[in-house]
Amino acid sequence: MNNDKDKIRQQIYLGALLHDIGKFYQRYDANSASKSELLDDAIKKLESVYCPNYNNYFTHKHVLWTAQFFDNHREKINKIFGLSKDDDTLMTLAASHHSPDPRNKWALIIQQADILSSAAEREEKKQDFKDDEQGWDGFKKIPLKSIFDLISLDGNYPDCAINPIETKPLTINKLPVLNNSEYNPDYGIWEAFNEEFCKIPDTLSPDNFIVTLDALLHRFTYCIPSSTVDEPDISLYDHLKTTAFLSVALFDYYSENENLTIPLADTCKPFVLLGGDISGIQDFIYDIPSEGAAKQLKARSFYLHIITETIVRNILKDFNLLQINVVYSSGGNFYILVPNLKELDDKIQNLNRRINEQLRRVHGTDIYLAMGYNEISIKNLKQKECSNSLNSEKCLSQIWDDLISEKIFKVKNQRYLSSIKEKYDEYFEPTSNFGKQSQDEKFLSKLELLGKNLRGTQFIVYSSYKHPNIKEEYCFDTKMGFYIYLLNENPAEKFEKSEIIKLNDTNIVNDIKNDNTYRFEFYGGNKYPVGENGYPKTFDKLAEGKNLDRLGIVRMDVDNLGKIFAEGFNPRLRTFSRLTALSRSLDLFFKGYINTIWDRDEFKNDTYILYSGGDDLFIVGRWDKTIEFAYEVKKAFFEFTKSTEFGLSGGVSIEKSKFPIRRAAYNAGKFEGMAKEFRIKSENIDKNYSKPYQKNAFTLFNTALSWQSDFEKVLTMKNDIKKHLFEKQNVSHSFFNSIKLFYMMQQEQTKKELPESWRWTAAYYLQRAKERLGKNNQSFINYIDDLKISMFTDRYRVNQHNEPLNSNYSFLQLLAIAVRWAELELRTEGK
Q1: Alpha-carbon distance 47 to 757, whole Å?
Q2: pTM for the whole thing?
Q3: Rounded CA gap, 788 and 769, in Å?
């Protein structure tokens, strides 16, 4: 691309990224356009230039505040983009998107991108009120609503979103979804945004400025509604981001097809959704000996994160795109919106081959990148209904689903096909070092240092060059064109033309020094309990209890997430903005807020997060603490989504500390799978269960317990058992061993259809226990009475509860699980 086109391209990136900044600014303004004290008279006069005319009244007046923002910062912005002080090019690109000059094809590109980003997100309705009408500012009182509120998996889509998002700068310390339906947003945060924008220096290059600005917009506009005309569930940030990446793709496509007219026709296919899936992750992470596994495990998980991010950066570099074009990247998967260029297939194939050759030199054939893509037409993005008919246009969610289930899946099943044809000998002739680099001592030592340094890391730097004055131990060479630095102090003064990422902290502008890209990133699990020499605690130490040492390995993930992305939104609402908003919201929880849960005193010394991102979670630690952690994650997740359409399934594998981590991970995955097989019995659905009726469970001691009913009942029973067994010392261990015996009798007699002798045996034993142990203890007498009624009627009569059990299991089975849980906890605690 020649220099002039490159400059235009950068201007389009910025114009699109800030085209609706006026919506934020306007909400801060206490007055209408005509009475505004924030709008200059010269800007007010641009009403006839930038605002559409509808019935002799100008609409979409937020563009005036967009123009004012550019005018306020004209000198800095124009300097960065190499324009004269008085040049209005960027203002016009951004502010004219509702009424562009038909001769300004670059403004027309942003207009079309804005419409496509909005597509089904909102109808282009006219705001036909007048500035002096009563209630003209009603839109300011409508907060952004939670994206989760509009999800449905049975086709009964909600009419509207309900739960508001708090207007506060983005942080991982507090989830932004509120319960208050009367919440009035506070747009005073505009002042903080504007102040931080002013701190971005004018010495950044255009590309670095754009990406840094994107991070600032993420911090402040994730909580601002893009539109209140229809459904206020799309944040301004998601709309700005999608408009920007669609604009630059339209520009690149048009640059190769200048014979076309803008706006492009519905039949044009200017966009490509490029996806990647790194396979071999599980084997790489877990295929390590138990001795010293703790040092390697976290390091390997983080290594795969930076390898994924390095691959993404290589792709962006090849397409001359910025980080804004990344739709999703997590857990070894990524999706990027790229322009549909000529010879695209060859470009992607060559890129895929080159990356896999780089991976092969380090990992042999253990780790492989499968890439695929789908073209997207203008009509696809406008499509408001999803049909399975062969002759109908696909909607965006179908294109996305097809990319995952068909295109990428096919490539994964044909690993190295083209490379094998070209380099048969390298794959099939014996060699002493083929694929051995990832197992040699030097590489493993570097991995261990990577994991060790992660704990103190506040900044991650991606640089194309090796810095001569930074210690080797803080540098990691990806062998893919980037050096990664993990640093605990702001490195901005040491680097130029690099990418500086602040970890789990969105406040970045005070760190800006030299000409770099500045961003923030959420990463789940960058801290962990420390053992000797600053390395993660060994599994032996993590598992340590008073009289029992056991390790817990928990795996959890969101149920039906693929279906939620494909079918969860009403077909007319399946837009890029919503899909990216949903992805971003899940990342906030699983990459961001998960760290806040972990940082509590009861978890941070005995557990660590091996991996958390996208929609899933892997925790290692002392067995009882991992179960508590899983329960807290469950509660926080449902408080965040506030939706019965979302389920969260998981399971815990409880093992000795020397047990092979690979097998422990497999077992935890098996228990997670058991939870996903859970189904509520039909006779219980209308009793005390709400949706989801399937999955949404946690496997404990080989039994999948419903989060909705079973788990908390077992938790309450476990705590009661501990109280009577230890705190009040009302009863010996033999009492609860008898409970387990009764359960075993019940299971055998039910299975073999034998007389239920367990009932009278239990009745006799409990009566004798009551007479023997409860003489001076009324609370224990009441406890025995409740147990008898609950056992023989399958009611839940525990701890002042008296209600139907409504479980897939008998009360006695749940009680037996609680007994086992209590016994192990008491042994672990040395009681």
Answers
A1: 87
A2: 0.93
A3: 12
